[in-house]
Amino acid sequence: MMWILVGIFGILSAVLLLGKGSFLIAGYNTASEEEKKKYKEKRLCRVIGLYMGGVTLLLALGAVLGEQAPDWYLVLAFVYLSIGTIVVILLCNTICVVKPPEEEKTGMESGKQQRMVKIINRCSVIFTLLLVVVIGISLVTGDVKTRFAGEKMKIVASYWPDYEIKREDIQKISHTNKLQPGKRTNGLGSMKLLEGHFRNEIYGDYMLFVYKDCKSYIVLETTGPTIVLNGETKEDTERLYEDMQKWAERGTET
């Protein structure tokens, strides 16, 4: 459903950025013809289109992060929607308004206004491009590393908080080649990784740190949540499984 919304908002943004689709703008679409003449329609559409483009990217990021996104995503969404709304209102009532002949600016003032419009447009394009790049990079990069340090094992995951496990908390270590991740409740799903909190019929609420292309998994049953992880390849996973067993067995040595 989220990706459907992303598609719809993306199409609407594209239409508005072309300077069309003014009937989509609330308030303007119900205004009288006399009122509409007070606004530069194409510019109005493009301003709203830039804003909706940012909303589209936020929705796409939300679809990647899952149903319960991390706090930083909620802060990002709040900041963009609040500040963006204010900026859009200001632009719609300044650069998008047709000035009456008696209120036309001098040549110098008109030039300043044009430069301001260009700066705002460039900043909007740069912001959108940066957001696209950040989302794109997070979709295809990242890794999951497991480190052993004394009595603790640490799972270091890109784009997600690290997770630490004490040796005394591990009850069982097993290996499987089958996994149905189930429902992502508070995690990240990219083209390369699945990380965070998931829920399925076998493990219930559990932690997942895996490479999507590797179909070999290590299952850690602990006093807390069950944890499923792997290496980037089947061979990496097998080596990690052996290292993890040796590390766990040291706790039983007398």
TrEMBL record:
Which segments cross the bilayer? 6-26, 47-66, 72-98, 119-140
Which Pfam family is one of this chain's hits?
DUF3784
Please give the name of this protein. Answer: DUF3784 domain-containing protein
Which keywords appear in this protein's UniProt record, sorted alphabetically? Membrane, Transmembrane, Transmembrane helix
Q: Domain of life, per the record?
A: Bacteria
Q: List the InterPro entries.
A: UCP037672
